[in-house]
Every structure is written in C-alpha cells, then in structure tokens.
Amino acid sequence: MDISALLAFAAAFFVFAASPGPDNVTIVTRALSHRPTSGIAYGAGTVVVTLLFLIFAAFGLSVVAAEMGGVMTLLR
User: Fold this and answer.
1) DSSP letter (8 states) at residue 76
2) Do residues 37 and 30 lie in contact, with contact meaning Cβ atoms separated by under 8 Å?
3) Which of 34, 45, 47, 71 is a plausible cystine mate for 38, CB 3.0–4.6 Å?
4) Alpha-carbon distance 25 to 44, whole Å?
5) CA–CA separation, 62 vs 35, rounded Å?
C-alpha cells in the first residue's frame, strides 16, 4: 500500500472521527457525568479502536484486491 492511499485513509478517518454521531455523544456524556479526564480517555480509546479497525479493513481489502487478479484470469 503506497503513501497516497494511507493519506486518503487518514483523511477519511479524520472526517469520520470528527463528525457527530453516537460515539461523540457518548464521549460528551461520559465527560459530563464523570470527570473530563474520563471523557478524554474514553475518546482516545474510541479513536484508537476505530483506527485499528480501519487499518485491518484496509489491509484486508488490499489482500482481496491482490487476489482478484488471479480469480479474474481464472474466470476468463
């Protein structure tokens, strides 16, 4: 996987993480109901796990795409 693809994934991840949704509501609720540091820790954990899922998906899809060449040749 080249650097331009990784940068595209990083940009998509940033937009995904910054957009409002259930994760952000949960982080704000956690920060308001407990301490602000608890909300920051919860948010950091959410970002790390989402990034890991994104990396696993990117590498998994690149493996599938690499194998598709052989499958397409076989189908022809």
Assistant:
1) -
2) no
3) 34
4) 14
5) 41
21-71: pLDDT as tens digits: 888 888 889 899 998 999 899 989 988 887 888 778 777 777 776 777 776
67 residue type, one letter: E
Residue 34, C-beta contacts closer than 8 angstroms, at least 6 positions apart: none
Q: What six digits make up the tokens of 45?
A: 């954990």
How many whole angstroms from its chain centre is CA 68?
24
22 Cβ partners below 8 Å, 6+ apart?
none
User: Model-level pTM?
Assistant: 0.57
For tokens 């948010």, name the residue: 43
**Rounded CA separation 15/27 (Å):** 17
Contact 75, 63 (CB under 8 A): no
